Amino acid sequence: MKLISVLCPHCQKSVSISTQSLSNTVQCEYCNKPILDGKPVEANVSNFDKLIQSPKPVVVTFWGNNCSPCNSFKPIFEKMASERKKQLRFLRVNVQQNKVLAARYRIRGVPTIMVFKKGKQQSVINTALRKKEFGDWLNDVLFS
C-alpha cells in the first residue's frame, strides 16, 4: 500500500494517507476533520505525482504569491472545489515554492489551471476565469 503525505486543510499538519483512499473521505489523525472535504489540497513536489493518480479527475491551479489574478481566482477555485467534491479533486501548487513542478509543466504565467485524469494531463488554460466560465470549461474538458 502506497502512502502519500498531504496537509490537512483544517489543522495544517502533515498526514499520511493511502493512495486508495484518495476517492474516499479520510479523517485527519490530529483534528479528526475530513482531509478531502472539498477544500483544495496544497500540493508539492513530494506528493503531486501521487495526488494526480486519484481515481477522480484532478483540477490543479498553479499560482503565485504576488499574483493579483491568482488572488481573485482563489475563492472561485475554492467554491468549485466545494461544489464538485464528489466528482473531482482540487489541488493548489505555489510555483515559487515548487519550481521543479512549474518547470516540468512549463508554467510561464499564473494562474495556470490543468486537469489530470489518472495521472495524465488532459487540458490546460493559462488565465483566471469567472465561476461560470470555469464551470463551463471543466464540463467541456470532463464530458467531451
Automatic annotation (TrEMBL):
Please report a single Pfam family linked to this protein.
Answer: Thioredoxin
Please provide, in alphabetical order, the Gene Ontology terms of the cellular component aspect for this entry. Answer: cytosol
The UniProt entry, under PROSITE patterns, shows: THIOREDOXIN_2 (PS51352)
InterPro entries (UniProt xref)? Thioredoxin-like_sf, Thioredoxin_domain
Domain Thioredoxin spans what residues? 15-143
Instruction: Give this protein's Gene Ontology molecular function annotations.
Output: protein-disulfide reductase activity
* Protein name (record): Thioredoxin TrxC
Natural source organism? Photobacterium chitinilyticum
